[in-house]
């Protein structure tokens, strides 16, 4: 009887152990009845890790989010609990009763299937019942806004568009966002303003406290009147939404929801410049300007040169109009002007100066007047046209040949042209002869240089053999070559981060980008697909040591944590050294 009792106990323990080790693979839905304007979350949960997960065909639904993967390990009373979940967010296409078919996964060589789930879709509801799902929360808590400084400017008046991403304090956003659609500004002259680092700032959105970052600043000068449309900026972002659950350490468990956010298109109504009072010499200048015409000297000799400079400075559309032309007497030789621009563009528009510099060479003695030049522009402050006129300039040529006037032509009062007789000394400043001296040289044949050049190829042969053997030896050193290649790769990806040492936000952004780009190059997958669990799995499959993988994950966590905590320069240097060492080790070990 005692033997039978012992056997019974053993059998009971085996059955109990088998029950605890039983594989569970289930499909769970957030609700089984919903309105056609509501969304459904479906989770495929398993208590053991598996491969080759195949979701059902959601033919009656539109997948608006997912798959999102979450992983949870916990210990209670010495018992380990494992749970892995694939989550999808679905929007019904129409009313009716629909069946979500089976999903499959392979665990330890066995294929497991979920049970089909029946969902009833009713007419649209005014107020969806129940708690909003993660996708709805993400939609309500993140907003992309295009702020236009002036929605009704004049033609060629600057206006600024600033794109801000507002994120509620209740959610987070991962760093692997990307621009899905970049705005193009048809009918505008545009220039982007450089943004150094995405600094997190505090602000309000519709009366609520939000965090925001400025993603893009662009200055626009409309080149056409009427209603002009600005194409939207569209981003793909991953929003981290709290699930309402916590891990064993009390930290909230987050789920990642992919979202596409857009700033929407904006319309700018461009006003034409007024016709009343428009000067005849107006060439499109709009802003606030000063105008000067100067010469490098007013007195010189014939065949010498001087420079006449026409310069406009101030703020306005400096790059978008032509400068007035210089007019001179026909007896002055004038060359094509050299155009220079010293213009900087900020949020207020263009500021600086533009100029044309003419080179003038007089040929004859005399006094030559340079007529005054006028410049007109539209002043935005007074909304009126203004004209600036330069003073007349006299160029006094004190020495040189004299122009000869033909007396027969002078009798015609209507003929003001002069016939000029050039002097024979007009090109006296050009040398037409030279004093050459012969240079004696020794014979090259059989000289020292001759024998050196003759023997040089023979001396180079042993040197080439030595270099070749050294290269073969270096190529044969596979381990050394791999180490050198790994070190070069680490320096390549971390070069930008090294430049930003000492600047916390810029350093950790460039460091995180370097780590993602490295993984993208080595694993051939998009960084938008990365999460820490997937990185760990992929690197482990590539036979990278677990300690090296842990160091890589810890560096990524440091990049995320650094955005919200103060960091010293010593810590940044340590993180940089650790990243360089870890990338080098991964490149040596990866298979």
TrEMBL record:
Keyword Transferase in annotation: no
Pfam hit, one: BatD
Signal sequence range: 1-21
DNA repair recorded as keyword: no
Superkingdom of origin organism: Bacteria
Keywords attached to this entry: Membrane, Signal, Transmembrane, Transmembrane helix
Residue spans crossing the bilayer: 448-467
PANTHER family in UniProt: BATD, PROTEIN BATD-RELATED
Name under which the protein is recorded: BatD family protein
Organism the protein comes from: Winogradskyella marincola
